[in-house]
Records
---
Amino acid sequence: MSQDSKTNHNLFTIALFSGTLFVSASLMFVLQPLFGKLLLPLLGGSPAVWNTCMVFYQSILFLGYLYAHTLSTRCRQHQQIFLHIAIIALSLLALPVALPENTIPPTDSNPTFWLCWTLFLAIGLPFFVLSTTAPLIQKWFSKIGHPSSDDPYFLYAASNTGSLIALLSYPFLLEPSIGLANQQTDWSIGYWLLCLLIAACGLLLWKRQQPNAVLETQTPIVDKLTWSTKLHWLALAFVPSSLLLGLTNFISTDIASVPLLWIIPLTVYLLSFIIVFSHWNDAVHPWMVKLQPLVLVPFIAYAFVNPADLPYWVYLILHILAFFFAVMVCHGELAKDRPPTQHLTSFYLIMSFAGMLGGMFNTFVAPFIFNGIYEYPLMIVAALLLRPGAVNTRLHWQLIVPVVLLSIGLILYANVNDLLQHFDNIALSLIALSIMVYFLRNQTVSYALTIGVIMFLALSLHGLSSHTLYQERSFFGVMAVRESVLTDENNQPETYHELFHGTTKHGAQRLPEPLAKIPLTYYSQPGPMGQLFTTFDATNANWNIGLVGLGAGALACYAKPSQQWTLYEIDPLVIDIAKNTDYFTYLSRCLPNPNMRVGDARLALEKEPDQHFDLLVMDAFSSDAVPTHLLTKEALALYFKKLKPNGILALHITNRHLALKKVLSIHAEQDHFAALIQEFKAPEAMPLVVDTDWVVMAKQPETLEKLHLSTMGNWQTMPLYFDMRPWTDDFTNIVKIWK
């Protein structure tokens, strides 16, 4: 073979193996959101559903890596090819990917096992094949005699590039332009292409294998892996995995509940793999280690100690930068410590196992042991403990600074009578310490633990300053009840209670007896809901009312004794808080014995009789993270099926980032519903009355005529939009409704 032919053949080989890994990773990252959307109308938007799916994916990924390790170490090369092709052929029986026919989740028990079984039946084998591709194809590449076969880890960059492109393409390209049915078909075609590419890689390996090839385990083992090496790999992979989920949860809870915000940390996470497993890592990694302490100074000072009144995107940048350097250092160490190809599959097996453990820790352990997103700062400290650096001081000497600092902080917090009066001085002291700790950067243990102590003291201080009466965490996020102060009509200070989900306020109540039954915030009497109940005051005495989304229970104080109210709430913790009279008394005062339904609203409403409600209030949209399955064409058809012919549907669409009125306007236009909107601006003189947007819909315009003609509020006909498709269970497009 001539030199040019040999060069071309080598390039073709790299293109084939890189392309196979690229396509496999792309298909994996498209399948996860695709199948999640298939499940959404069936199981609702419960985070427990998504958590279960993620653990399933990570578990199958681990099993795929275990299979690749076992296959490559226990079977001869031609046996590997035959067996893997057989499993691929078997997986083709699952195409096209779809939910099993007539599958119905259990209604009287936890659906976790049902969900795992459904996932296994529908996509278990294809996802398993995708999971095996990265380690197995790299292992095959190491055996074909290519000039780069001795270090095939650069192919991992191709795999993560595919993951990254698929991640960004799905919400911005695929979802807005292709419905679910077509996505299923196109994905299946892509899977057939992957099968052909894997077969081509196997054929190339077959041609290059030695006629007397023996089992790899029969060859002398060089550089046997030690347990310390394996545990080091495990820690370097576990911490970034947990940190990724912790940061995603933290920024959507404590910074801003912005749709698609979760993409940014995952993009950074995948990008780190692309960089560290490329040929750039040797030059980049030392700089990451040097720059990380510099980035942490403003991060600790402004993101934890003294968050000023800055836009949320400034905080987001600080957190993303700190996360980027943390995962780059950990993954850089992981790539630097990668073993010879003999242990390639063991290396990836430990990485996948660590990733699965990270997911399980954040999903199943942290919510039960922490009442806040505390696993995030915990993993920041863990990442710093994994920093490389010369340890010039013995361990017990490195513990002196953090132990002394923690002791001083606890003594101050315990003995200063009014700690908040000294808030600024304490914050300035912690900022100074976060600057000074930079000089400990080469003392790994002292540096990491001192930063941990600073973050702990800062979080404790902010917990005191927020006057948090109660805080608890569930699958649905962190709920907190806080006590605040306003100036009443007589210029006297008055305490009141607020309910928060992360940073989103879900209700408030004034405490004095004459004021405690007055609905506030989004449900105020001057606002759209107050106008609606007042307008129909003469005719609504016997209404049957359904309320989706409980909050603090403020809407219950519009109830009349002769009305029937049914309340729907997905989070049992919200119900406990609303019923606890130490925090809120709306329910106990106004609706002490409501019909309560726990679960996803759409699933719960399916069980109600048709033409049951006079008024159905959908208040599931007060957070900026929107359950899209509650706004589809099929969802609205369900709501009107449960409403009486002259019934009214009221939807709360207040949102900082999304123009939800576009979705509802198109539904109203296509299905010929009458629809009015009010974008209410709160008067400045009214305390705890806030700006809020509501839409009311009915089958006949006459039903809403009285409200339209009312002089109490500015109800307008819905504007028309022609630049987007209607949302259905098959198609949604978040990007198109960004404000």
Note: Residues 499-737 form a domain with the Rossmann fold fold (CATH 3.40.50.150).
---
Amino acid sequence: MNVIEKILAAHSGKKEVKPGQIVDVTIDCRVARDFGGANVVKNLLDNGLTLDDPSKTYFTFDCNPGGSDQKYAENQHFCRRYARENDIRVYDINSGIGTHLAIDEGLILPGGTFVSTDSHANIMGAIGAFGQGMGDQDIAAVWAKGSAWFKVPKSVKIVFTGERPANISAKDIVLNMLNTFGANQLLGYSVELYGDPINKLTLDERITISSMGTEMGAIIVLFTPTDEIVQTLENLHGKKVTPVFADDDAVYDKVINLDISTFVPMVAKPGHPDDDIDIEAVKKVKIDSAFIGSCTNGRIQDLEQAAKVLEGKKVAPGVVLKIVPSTDEVWQEALDKGYIKVFKEAGALVSNAGCAGCAAGQVGQNGPKEITVSTGNRNFSGKQGKGYVYLTSPAVVAASAVAGYITTDDDVPEKPAEFKPLGDEELKPVKKHKESGKRETVAEGRVWIISKDNIDTDMIFHNRYLTITNIDEMGQYTFDNLEGYEDFAKKAQPGDIVITGKNFGAGSSRQQAVDCFKSLGISCILAESYGAIYERNAINAAFPILTYDPELLQKLEITSGDRLKIDFISGKIVNVSKSKSGYTEPFSDVQAQIYKRGGLLV
């Protein structure tokens, strides 16, 4: 077996597991964050459920340290009250990012299993552990039962060859990977990385790469810990570390070789983490702000790289630089090493530890038309604000903040670029002119064809609405961040069916991106493929989703506005409007069982 198969077999009481097999997996560490935690608790209370094991259960308040939003503050306090009553440890607003805390404090060890309401829980691949982001219902079920069903994924083995260029950071490595594989070529795979360049990576560098497995559509990006990594982990938390290794004859769906010597410094252009380009192509692009932090680049090694660039320099006039360490321990180490002083003297804003702009709850957000360089993992439209976000490494962000435009750390000008009046029409004064029962397994409805791939959860249900817990309020916001479909919620009718492309629901673990369709009365979604977390959320919420082959649309001559009839159990699809029929993949046994019950928690 390979690494993922060994971990899942060990935690499901089986001697071996195979790709496609569905197994019930015991979870070693179970986490809910501040914005998802309140819904997790609500699911438990509403369904009369209690905790399986409080000693393995945690809250981490990393999205909005300080509760600067009233709803966040309310949710955090609600979770604290529940924690007191149930002896749950809370890593509160002074602690930092939950996934990093879990690694540093030994809540999860190599070979272990971890789930969280954080869609980047697969960051645990950095230490050779299995981690998954889940929706609120999923986490509630794990808290109550101690385990979760998983489909054993197929695995890809990527072997790195060549010599790593001196100017290639860990962020460059993962951006080059995204440039190679895009957002869905590794969709649904467990990915294992090997080769001499991989063996030389530090823990912080591995965290950077694993944290963006979600952006590649992968279930997880796994590293096998070296002796040095084992020692690093044991020094952090004092617990004995025993890595899991793939067998010599382990089976992989694909084996891919990558020559790291061909990698170049890269940035991801605004809108998509996989829209990557050689940094030379965007050099001199004027910026408004810069951000260093997130679960991808908030470790001490990241801050060290930034400090080396910023020491003795100043942030360019008019540019805002925000820096957020990943954990309080990293913050303290940065203080002890003098990095915080360097940042402050350079003119940066340094915040307390946390997720920052990625979660819309702390510093790091930008405004409309604002151009930002960021070390985050996502730059979906609206994700880190309403402006434009380029993703890159800490050294490049720091250098760009000093230059006032995108540049590399070896090409920082003596005199920074300055802002000049551009005659912006938007800023000129304008004269205003006055002016219940058995669940049906067959759906029938009008078709919406949305011919787009990689529709992410921010497009489906934007993060500014994440504090909404009432499903009745969610429908009105469906697709209001998807270009061309902003009025979808107003035009949709109960029973409508949505047909879309690959990797639908990529991105965050938010349950609302499923529930908003239920709120509108949408009867079914057909997609070529789904984001892994989104697929789980839909199945567990008893919301009908099916996959289809694009040829089926042609065969049935389906166009927007047609009326379809779909049998979820048989997979039969009838284009009522054109009297044509065919078959697609029906519900799996697990999906059918959950659907007929009315949901995972029923």
Note: The domain at 266-417 is CATH 3.30.499.10 (Aconitase; domain 3).
---
Amino acid sequence: MKNIKFNKKVLHLNNQYWILLLMSSFAFLLIFFRLFFLQVINSQIFKKMSDQNRIRLIATEPIRGRILDKNGEVLARSKLNYSLIIKPQFINETLWQRYKYSIANLLNLQTDKLDLKYKNGVKNEQYSINLVNNLSVDQIIRFKENEDKFLGIEILRKVKRDYPHKTLAAHALGYTSAITNSEFKILSKKGYRINDLIGRTGVEAVYENYLRGDWGGEMIEVNANNVVQKSLGIKPSKKGKDITLTIDLSLQKIAEEVLKDKKGGAVIVMDPRDGAIRAIASKPTFDLNFFTKDFKPEKEYNNLFFSDSKPLFNRALNAYDPGSVWKIVTALAGMESGKFPLDTQLQTAPCIVYGSQCFREHNDEGFGSIGYEDALRVSSNTFFYQIGYGVGVDEINRISKILGFTNLSGIEINFQEDRGLIASSEWAKNGRGWGKPGQTPWIPEDIASMSIGQFVVQTTPIQIARAYAVIANGGYLVTPHLSKVDKENLSYKDSIKVDIDSKHLDVIRNGLSKVVQSGTGVSINYGSYNLPPISGKTGTAEDALGGPDHAWFVCYAPSKDSEILIVAFAENTPGGGAVHALPMAKKILEEWHKKN
């Protein structure tokens, strides 16, 4: 019996041993696998987390590239703002008490304000505390002369965008503003920092990657108590690239000036040979420097964003009734269709009835029997009513598309660009954009309006510039552009040879020459005897929205081998294109001729 009890006791002890061994082994394996997971599999992750706790970055903002006109004149630049900063990790409280009095005396500052900024910065554990903003040149010089006396205190350069010409080409240049928190989640992967600036509109936005540059900074190592141990190195910030535009500053100034007495409008000056924009202006405009202000007054903000005049709206890219400047499209439709050959003669009249309305001639008399060239010269309405009615809406629509209408122009700043409206029978059949299909059919009254660029035709000044460039350059549809950068950032396309008979283009070219020689645009020659031969077209358009008439004038010079094309548009300025828009173009031509 005693042996049996002893064996049971031994067996029990053996079981405890094996259980303890298994538990110990299991615990050891758990620890082993955990250590393997931490130190081998996820070593890089935890090293990165450790570095993030150990390393701090004092960032240095890059200088944004300049925007220059074609001659190197500065249109936008980065203006440097200097601040006095202190790195509290490099000094102690005793040293600061001595520094604050010395700095206050040296730079003519108040000691208590310096002390307050320093203490707030230390309380918030800042590694770089801003003591003074907007240092004057005198203050910068004084500090630099005594810089070696102040350990841990230095001048910080801050970059601020500056537009020396304020409102000049505002819609084309565009502006920058700080990125938002929601944008930062995406842009941080591209090297942006919180509150970093980014181009919002215009050239600033289009060439953001070209202009912005790269951040730099100093890396410092801290211990568990956030006390700086040492500097790990400095990486200089990288300046953004400068970009040269096709804009000519002198022509841009005149383009802005001729709009000053207008309620609203736009001016485009373009080289018809390749589409290079020499000037592009829109009225009302705005001061680009508003967006660089640290504090934006509420009144200024409301006038910019909530004004009925919409100063941020680019009129050069917005669609309006083109009026008589559209008549070259109807003329080409007549000839290209074959229904009204280039030698066609039509009898004009005081008015012609379409549907239930008599559409009048603008002189209420008519001009007798005339052909295309004279119809353009005197801007006859009844001549083009007959052409338009004869070829039909869809032929006019077809020719308009060849000339670039209903499409975006291709200019880089197309954020607000309108495609416009060129009516077609299909468009009317489908409801005209506001009605139900089948209930808004094409009617005879529509063709009269369309033939002379009214109501069912809406075009932008930039589209008009492209179409007239086809006439001026002998048949090439150019792409307007503001910049010619390197091949990696090509900003324009090759010109397209249009599918229009060159003889028909010659007829239009002759007619536009006669407009200025003895027609509705003859006043451009008054008092300007030294200008080269000019071709052009006046236009007066009723506003489809019910406002006063618009005034248009388009011209190019010289008439042969043209080098400049101008579109002048005065919004809701009744009185006619020859009265209001033509003088605008004339002043620009005079400035261009003086330069050349």
Note: The first helix runs from residue 2 to 41.
